[in-house]
Amino acid sequence: MAVSLIIKWGGQEFLITTLSEEDTVLDLKQSLKGLTGVLPERQKLLGLKIKGKPAENDVKLGSLKLKPNTKIMMMGTREESLEDVLGPPPDNEDVVNDFDIEEEVVEVENREENLLKISRRVKEYKIEILNPPREGKKLLVLDVDYTLF
Prior knowledge:
Blueprint: E1 2-9, E2 12-20, H1 25-36, E3 44-46, E4 49-50, E5 53-54, E6 70-75, H2 79-86, H3 112-124
Parallel strand pairs: 1-6
Antiparallel strand pairs: 1-2, 3-6, 4-5
């Protein structure tokens, strides 16, 4: 008895009616290779399950108990598309190997951004005198909030 399946891939639907229940999943993948150009080892068929697990290549289509015109989604990429991605990258003179560049260790107090912040605060800070200093008396500064360094 012939098995009729609808395979969805790449926005297209392919109707397969040439397989019988005695054919295997690998035979299905081989016929899909002819239609889509995707190699069987690059194909993943979503919707073909046996006992809750994806069907292996040697499973017969008759044992999957597929209804006529069952829709199965296929995932996979043609080899031509993969050659562009997997091929060696072109030589580019602008690429810098930044793993070999030694970074200079700068202490926190000497970093440029911190020095700029300090100079800006010193320039913009408005001193508010609460009590004027008294002549001949010593000054005691208590830094209760640890705000002075």
